[in-house]
């Protein structure tokens, strides 16, 4: 009867595979040969082409914000140079364009208008509005209601008004701090 049996690891020293045959047979990962994307290195010709095809496999790709809307914008200069492409009503003194039907959401101010335009668009930059109105045209914004300020917003106290007191002349002077 043996009282001290040698460990198998000791007896298999020098045998490379310790009695498990091929190198990949004792990994515990079965036939797939590894865990996850193991084996996608230099010699993995079976997996390499599928990884090349996936353009989002390498690198970081940030966050995807679901609440952003893509705004299609157009400049005044584009309208000027490609007016014939638009479904525009041209009269002898004005040109009417509905940019919302053309697929644009916002009018930007690059370029100078040479005609009087009546442009229907949801959003417009301040420079574009100034340029169109200075040329004698107008901007129609269908979803924007006329801005009416409530009386409460006009009566709000500004941060500077707390520091100033009315003088005898009616002008505000800074309060003296103790």
Notes on the protein architecture:
The protein is of the alpha/beta class. It contains six helices and nine strands; from the N terminus they run ααβαββαβββαβαββ. Strand 8 (164-166) and strand 9 form a beta hairpin. The longest helix is centred in the last third of the chain and has 9 residues, at 126-134. It is rod-shaped, with a radius of gyration of 37 Å. The chain starts with 7 loop residues before the first helix and ends with a strand.
Strand content: 15-25%
Q: Mean pLDDT, as a whole number?
A: 80
- Structural class by helix and strand composition: alpha/beta
What's the CATH architecture of the domain at 73-140?
A: Ribosomal Protein L15, Chain: K, domain 2
Number of strands: 9
Please give a handful of descriptors for the protein shown:
four-stranded mixed beta sheet; 6 helices; 178 residues; three-stranded parallel beta sheet; 19% helix; 9 strands; rod-shaped; alpha/beta; Ribosomal Protein L15, Chain: K, domain 2
């Amino acid at each position: 009867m043996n009282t001290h049996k040698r460990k198998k690891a000791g007896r298999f020293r020098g045998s490379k595979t310790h009695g498990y045959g091929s190198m990949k047979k004792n990994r515990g990962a079965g036939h797939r040969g590894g865990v996850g994307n193991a084996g996608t290195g230099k010699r993995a010709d079976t997996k390499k082409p599928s990884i090349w095809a996936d353009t989002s496999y390498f690198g970081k790709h940030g966050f995807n914000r679901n609440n952003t809307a893509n705004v299609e914008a157009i400049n005044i200069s584009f309208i000027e140079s490609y007016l014939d492409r638009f479904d525009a009503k041209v009269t002898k003194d004005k040109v009417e364009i509905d940019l919302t039907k053309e697929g644009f959401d916002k009018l930007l101010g690059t370029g100078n208008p040479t005609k009087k335009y009546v442009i229907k668009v949801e959003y417009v930059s301040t420079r574009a509005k100034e340029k169109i109105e200075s040329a004698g045209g107008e901007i129609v914004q269908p979803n924007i209601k006329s801005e009416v300020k409530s009386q409460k917003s006009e009566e709000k106290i500004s941060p500077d008004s707390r520091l100033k007191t009315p003088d005898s002349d009616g002008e505000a002077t800074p309060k003296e701090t103790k």
